[in-house]
Write a structure and sequence with these properties.
Radius of gyration: 19 Å
Strand order of the largest sheet: 2-3-4-1-13-16-15-14
Number of domains: 1
CATH architecture: Roll
Strand content: 25-35%
Distance between the termini: 31 Å
Number of strands: 16
Largest sheet: 8 strands, mixed
Amino acid sequence: MSDEYDRTTQDVGNILGLEHVNLLQNDRDLADRFWVSTLGFTRDAYIDLGLFGNMWVNLGGQQFHLPAGDPQCFRGRIGLAVADLDLVAKRLTRLLDTFPAAGAAGVAWERVGSTLEVTAPFGSKLVLHAAEDLEWFGTVGMPYVEVDIERGKAPGVVAFYEQMLGAPSQLCESGATPAARVGVGRRQHLRFVETDEPLPDYDGHHIAVYLHDFSGPYGRLRERGLISMETDDHEYRFIDIVDPGSGDVCAQLEHEVRSMFHPMFGRELVNRDDRQGLGTRYRQGHDARPGLHLSGIG
């Protein structure tokens, strides 16, 4: 037996992957211009939900789901890895110069170090990284989401994900701020960052995750009355993230929890190469990126 390696660094944990973030929006044209034409993501090639007022956009092995409805704002930040940060910056400038509805909906951006901090329509905060700068993630996509929580709640979040969901979790810092880090698959994570700022009311936005042990967490959550929706045999939902010891609510974020038998588990997502353009920027045979599966699974 050798003590040379820390084998725990190779543990995946029970949450296999973060698949999508769901945000309601009420301007389909603006959503298409922002998420597809400007950020460079790809409308799902096979499932058209337009008749239902919904749109799915792919970024690497993850998605944004954007149903029609009263706009929702993610309570924190969503980390994204893109192929060409400078190109996205140029398109953001063009969007704000040519499409007044974007500015009216609160779209804004600025460079902060090696990232772009972008405000999406209706307020959600995005942090865009160059994919090449995130060697641990290794591709375009959604490496993390960061949720704001009240001071002192991070230890309870760690205990919840470890004890209730079987996810490797630890206390850490985001900048100089206490936070909880929850491992998701091989390359993603959730971060819950403490703040002194007042938190807005939770408006129902959600994330979707896949679990290996699907029934164990279900039983523990149900015992505490935390199941918020019984969808079907391969999906359930919960909202409240509670300290298992005290029962105090530490955060609210709906989790759409899916099993490995869910029909969309491991689904290949089609992605275009958004660096392709007309004329001299076009390279024949480079329209598409290789097929991508949920990060941490495929």
